[in-house]
Amino acid sequence: MQKNFICPFCSGQLYLNERIVLSAQKHDGTRGLILLTPELGDYRAIKHPTFKIIAGEHIDFYCPLCHKNLMVERNDKKFTQVTMIETGDEFEVFFSQIAGEKCTYVVGDDYFKAYGEDADENTNFWGVKPNY
């Protein structure tokens, strides 16, 4: 079943041509578009070659439609949040804003799943133990 990804603020479609489209801004103010794979736990991304990102760098992600910052904080840790709809069910997807840090969390009513090799390094902010 195909997943659909939308902005948690404007409900605008972020999923286009098998990619999640987000705008991004580095700490120095440099901006660019990033296309993410919809496969949770797959951290490949497409961006313009001049938009250089260094591992460990903090990146803010924005909705390309309403331009809202998609950042949420949990226990002093910053994540990007998007909404995923799959088979009629709605989930919140959180992923790290630190370049190269591989952790993604999917949270729904009575549902939690963690992805990525760095997922267990973070405190479980959602009150359940991750299932791998």
Question: What is this structure's SSE topology?
Answer:
Layout: E1 4-6, E2 15-16, E3 19-26, E4 31-36, E5 45-47, E6 59-62, E7 71-74, E8 77-86, E9 89-96, E10 104-108, E11 111-115
Antiparallel strand pairs: 1-8, 2-3, 3-4, 3-6, 4-5, 7-8, 8-9, 9-10, 10-11
Structure description:
This protein has strands spanning 4-6, 15-16, 19-26, 31-36, 45-47, 59-62, 71-74, 77-86, 89-96, 104-108, 111-115. By secondary structure, it is mostly beta strands. The chain has one domain (4-121). Strand 3 (19-26) and strand 4 (31-36) form a beta hairpin. The mean pLDDT is 90.
Poorly predicted regions are none
Radius of gyration: 14 Å
DSSP summary, beta strand count:
11
Helix content: under 10%
Defining traits:
132 residues, 6-stranded antiparallel β-sheet, mainly beta
Summarize the entry for a quick read.
The protein is mainly beta and 132 residues long. The chain contains no helices and 11 strands.
